[in-house]
Design brief:
154 residues
Amino acid sequence: MTKQLLVNLLNAIKFSIKKYLLFLIDVSIFIEMKFMENNEMDDLFKIFKALGDKNRLRIIKMSQQRSCCVCEITAVLEIATSTVSSHLSVLKDIGIIVDVKDGKWVDYYFNTKTSNAFLNGLMLLLTFCLNNDEQVKADLEKLHTTNRDELCKT
């Protein structure tokens, strides 16, 4: 096989996998919406409201790459620490971000599994979104050069 043929084959497989994953997301969202009760409408509203902020989307994309502390997120986003903390609180509240205490730091992670099928589908979709966005690319590049030991000096 030629190199180009292999590349074309891999691209076709990658496209098929993405298409299948998007189908699974559609099915899980349909199932979740089909059985959604009235009190869950507030949860759905909170999820969409949380995703309606660019800085929160940027935090999500960073947390998909690796765990981050508040200092690292603050340095990348170049916004106030209190604002970062507020964004993290909103994202934790809906279950997209989880936190784990690690020594003197609190690490924030992208949550890979919840009991909410709708949120699971949405989180899977978020792994494919914004990967070619210039701001997200710049954020991830800056994140790779951050040094939490230097940023978080007390």
